[in-house]
Amino acid sequence: MPYTLEVKYEESPAGNKLISIYSTLSIEEDQLSNILDIEVYFRSINQSGVFPLITCSCGSFGCGGTEVTISKDQDSRIWRINNKEYILTRQEIKTIGMQLIEYILKIKNEYKDYLICSGTYGEDISNNLEEYGSILKDC
Ligand SMILES: [Zn+2]
User: Cα of 14 to ligand 1 centre, how many Å?
Assistant: First the structure.
């Protein structure tokens, strides 16, 4: 399905030397409310299951996150979100992953020795790029 990925970032108001990334995905006409948890995005790529993939922009899933049920097959991923179904091809899943990695690299270049997280405050993902890259290779 056609999608748009919008990524914004800022120096986190909640931490020192911390960059907050806000990545929003629209699939077809639907903008998924809230932001992608980037770590969960990569962890879910090669699996089926229920994932806390869409999280509140504050970074806390408990604050208004949405679980996504993902069914993986060889050529696509079906995301079920609140009774709606979205089909992303394997190539789309890979491309979104590569776009996220590129943004994180760009931020790392611009803000050396900052930590990076999804949403205002969360787990640091600035050192996970190698792992994310190998996940994409297996996708
Ligand atoms: Zn929140």
Answer: 12
Q: What's the pLDDT score for residue 17?
A: 96
How many whole angstroms from 55 Cα to the centroid of ligand 1?
Answer: 8
User: Distances in Å between the alpha carbon of 113 and those of 2, 3, 4?
Assistant: 36, 32, 30
Q: Which two tokens stand for residue 10?
A: 């800022």
Distance 137 CA to ligand 1 centre (A): 33
- Residues flanking ion ligand 1, Cβ below 5 Å: 56, 58, 63
pLDDT attached to residue 89: 96
Q: How far is the CA of 56 from the centre of ligand 1 (A)?
A: 5
Note if the pTM is more than 0.90: yes
Convert the pLDDT of each residue in 89-112 to its tens digit. Answer: 999 999 999 999 999 999 999 999
pLDDT value of residue 29: 80
Instruction: Give, in order, the Cα–Cα distances in Å from 93 to each of 9, 121, 132.
Output: 21, 25, 12
- CA 76 to centroid of ligand 1, rounded, Å: 30
